[in-house]
Write a structure and sequence with these properties.
The longest helix is centred in the C-terminal third of the chain and has 23 residues. Helix 5 packs parallel to helix 6, helix 7 packs parallel to helix 8 and helix 13 runs parallel beside helix 15. This protein has 15 helices and 15 strands. With 410 residues, the chain is an alpha/beta fold. It folds into two domains: 132 residues, Aspartate Aminotransferase, domain 1 (Alpha-Beta Complex), CATH 3.90.1150.10; 237 residues, Type I PLP-dependent aspartate aminotransferase-like (Major domain) (Aspartate Aminotransferase, domain 2), CATH 3.40.640.10. Strands 4-10-9-8-7-5-6 form a seven-stranded mixed sheet, sandwiched between helices. Strands 11-12-15-14 form a four-stranded antiparallel sheet, with helices on one face. The protein is globular, with a radius of gyration of 22 Å. Strand 5, helix 6 and strand 6 form a beta-alpha-beta unit.
Length: 410
């Protein structure tokens, strides 16, 4: 069998991506991590860059727990006890004690009856949403929701899909009102913290509107939130958007791979919901779970988060994020207000954003540029992600580099 016939087409498609500006290109490979020293946080070494050290401003390990010695020790101990992998899917002897303990702790942490761990947050959303969307369901989604939500809806084949403008509660209300009696069930889905901008969904208002109109749907209105960027990084105790808005969705999805610094995703809800998902979602049934050692590490991270140490890390994260926002504002850069450690520098021009990312890289900063069509034209940005492992010296060095860029750009 030959690949020659299709290779030409594949090269053409890759070139199209390059022309559109969405080609991700060659990955930067990390070869080592230099421990924090001299008042600075960790530095990273990359393939092809010799001994040049990089400050990582594009990591979603918001609390720095991926390098926490107690979390690493918990994973090492569990690997020695249970081995490196689960060896099976959950229902075929692939469930280990750390999986069960982690799920119980996650449910308690979020004030829910039950929790269920998946191999990633992406697969969690893909596994959960289709199980609650039928051909008689209306799905309503924020226009800036994550790709996993978009693809989960596509997989589901709902009776009708409606998109409301970002945070436009009046439009959400209009959609639910106009479709009263037209669908048996409605599912309203939103990100908690939006990954491109770091802004927070008005979950309290969304749920209030849903409760107002749920009597018009025979099977009610189900609210679903993916707060992967919020849990562990937002709210006084790290419980994310639900804590910040003092309300709860019917189903909450989050991740173990960002603020908790490990790997995997999870969903929390009522016991009936979780029992149903264990029996129905193929992303859980037919895929190996995270390793027992990853579950043990996540359990340790959650223990740290839900403690006085976690409160201190969250406060540090909030202060460092505010310091960066203030620095950007003082330099005359445009950013978005907020408290989340995603701090966008709004460039609003694709070529300039690409040039700025290269300048930052040349000066030892790893940052992510988001250009059209990944974001709408005019919303091009550099997305900085602050971590509790950063220091004020790190943030000051970044601000100084951005100051020099502004001078060279004049």
């Amino acid at each position: 069998m030959s690949l020659k016939q299709i290779e030409k087409l594949l090269f053409e498609k890759l070139n199209d991506l390059k022309v559109k500006g969405t080609l991700k290109g060659e990955e930067k490979v990390i070869t080592g991590i230099i421990a924090a020293k001299g008042g600075f946080g960790p530095r990273y070494l990359l393939v092809g860059q010799g001994e040049k050290e990089f400050l990582r401003m594009n990591s979603n390990s918001y609390l720095g727990l991926s390098l926490n010695k107690d979390v690493i020790q918990a994973e090492e101990d569990a690997a020695r006890k249970f081995g490196t992998g689960p060896g099976a899917v959950r229902f075929i002897s692939g469930t280990y004690e750390p999986h069960v303990e982690l799920e119980k702790r996650l449910a308690d942490f979020h004030g829910r009856e039950a929790a269920m761990v998946f191999s990633s947050a992406y697969s969690t959303v893909m596994g959960v949403l289709p199980q609650f969307i039928t051909e008689e369901t209306l799905v309503v989604s924020d226009e800036l929701n994550h790709n996993c939500i978009i693809n989960a809806i596509r997989l589901s084949h709902p009776a009708k899909k409606a998109i409301y403008r970002h945070f436009d509660i009046k439009e959400l209300e209009r959609i639910l009102k106009e479709n009263t009696g037209q669908a048996k069930r409605a599912v309203v889905i939103t990100d908690g913290i939006f990954s491109m901008r770091g802004d927070c969904a008005p979950l309290d208002k969304i749920i209030e509107i849903c409760r107002k109109y749920e009597s018009g749907y025979e099977e009610g209105i189900l609210t679903v939130v993916d707060d992967s960027h919020g849990v562990g990084a937002f709210g006084k105790t790290g419980r994310g958007v639900e804590e910040y808005t003092n309300t709860k969705a019917d189903i909450l999805v989050a991740t173990l791979g960002k603020a908790l610094g490990v790997n995997g995703g999870y969903v929390v809800s009522g016991k009936a919901v979780i029992d149903y998902l264990r029996e129905t979602t193929p992303f859980y049934i037919y895929s190996n779970p995270i390793t027992p050692s990853e579950a043990a590490a996540a359990l340790k991270s959650l223990e740290i988060l839900d403690s006085s140490e976690g409160i201190k890390l969250l406060e540090r994260l909030k202060n460092l994020s505010a310091h960066l926002r203030e620095g950007l504002n003082q330099l005359g850069y445009e950013t978005l207000p907020g408290e989340h450690p995603i701090v966008p520098l709004m460039v609003r021009d694709t070529k300039k954003a690409s040039h700025m990312v290269k300048y930052l890289f040349d000066n030892g900063i790893l940052a992510t540029g988001l250009n059209f069509p990944v974001v709408p034209k005019g919303n091009e940005e550099i997305r900085f992600q602050v971590s509790a492992s950063h220091t004020e010296k790190d943030i000051d060095s970044l601000i100084d580099i951005l100051k020099r860029f502004k001078v060279t750009a004049l």
